[in-house]
Structures are given as structure tokens and as C-alpha cells.
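Field reference: sequence -> structure
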Amino acid sequence: MPNPNDDAYANAAHIPDAASFPPRWEAEAEAYRARLSVARRLRPGLMYGHGTREMMDLFLPEGVPQGLVVFVHGGYWHKFDRSIWSHFAEGARARGWAVVMPSYDLCPRVRIRDITRQVAQAVTVAAQEVSGPIRLTGHSAGGHLVARMLAPGMLPEAVAGRVAHVMPISPLSDLRPLLDLTMNAVLGLDRAEAMAESPIAMAPPKVPVTVQVGGDERPVFLDHARWLEKAWGCGSVVVPGKHHFDVIDALKDPDSAMVTTLLDR
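Structure field:
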């Protein structure tokens, strides 16, 4: 019998032509990497750990970078890797920022808490490659992961001190509702880990945070954005007319309000 709780988090089931998005992302990302490779603006496959997925791609601007943007992909912690999101680096890269995109191990091979630590290691190693301020953004599960980077002691003090802004996009801010989903057979969350890994349970960070979410997303994602805004007293933007899959399109445009918020706040 279907789990009645699953539909609230089933983004694809409520997005027209949802199946076309991943192959489109993959094709755009491959073309983007090819273009930047020819221009010698891409450093692919940098290792941040010893595992086969502990790798990241670094996209470089023209000239000396103004700083570092880290984008962490989503996929409910059990899907995708860095390779289909490359083109979303362009907005920040065109504005003069280096952009790094890490892959990470996926559930059920690891737990969410392990992925959080991997992302922290990726940010730490990337910070050694690029000087200047650091701005973190991520989508969906990636939004959860960049929010977790603000937990005390998560990043080395020298790296944490460089983080100037965090912009979770459509983040999962409270993992306790996921305990009741069929998907938890893959995630393996228990109540203690769900609470420990929930950004809403963290102390409000001192670093500026702006939550972004699409106005046409599933109601529960609007809830997650609102919960984080309330827990942290942070800024929040509801992007009109955007659903869970196209809300990140603005990251490709250097003149978009989303990129401006990420880089200028």
C-alpha cells in the first residue's frame, strides 16, 4: 500500500515534464565543461578525500577570483553527482568568482551525517585552492548541507571565518518528517540523527543567511523554508512562479536577483 506521507515530498510527480529535466541538465553541464576546458577555466576532479566520489570540479573566472562559491547539489542524499550541475556555476563565475562543485557519497552506502562531514572537508580543501571570502549555496538536500556548515566546529576556524554568506535553496531544514517516508529505507535516519542533522535545531548562526524557495514548490518545501527563517531569524525569498526543478535556473544568469543576493549580501 502506498505511503500517504510520500506525496508531500514527491517533487517530480507535480512538475510538468519532470523527466526531461535531468537529461537536459546533463547535456547543458557537459557542454559547459567542454567550453570551459577549452578556455582553460576548468580544473576537474580535484580530490578532497580518498573515496572515489570525494572529488570536486573547480570553475575559474577570468583574472584573479574575487572569492569562492561552493555549490552543493541535491537529490535527497541518494541521487546524482556533481557532473550534471556544472552550468549552474556560470552566474557567479561570470561575476568574477571561482565556483567549486563537489560530489559526495550517497545513502545507503553512508549516512547523512557522513555526507555532512564530507561536504565540510570539500569546503575546507576548496578554501585552500582559492583565497578570499567564501559563499555557500546548495539546492534541496544540498541546501540542507550548506546550512549544516554553520554548525559550531563543522569547519576549521580559519575557513569558517571566511564564510560571508550562505544561501540554501529549497532546503530541507527539519529531517524529522522524513522518518515517516518510504525513502527512509534508503536514508536510514533514526530520530536522534534526524534531530542532530536538522538545521532548525542549530543555534542561529552569526553569518548572514538567505533562504530561497520557489513560489510554486510543494507546500512542504515552503514550510521548510519558513521553519528555517523562523529558527534562525534569517532572510527569506520566495521566487514567484518557480517550482523545485527550475528555481535554480537563475544561478546561470550573472544579472539575476538570486546571483546578486548570493554575491552581494
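Note: The radius of gyration is 17 Å.
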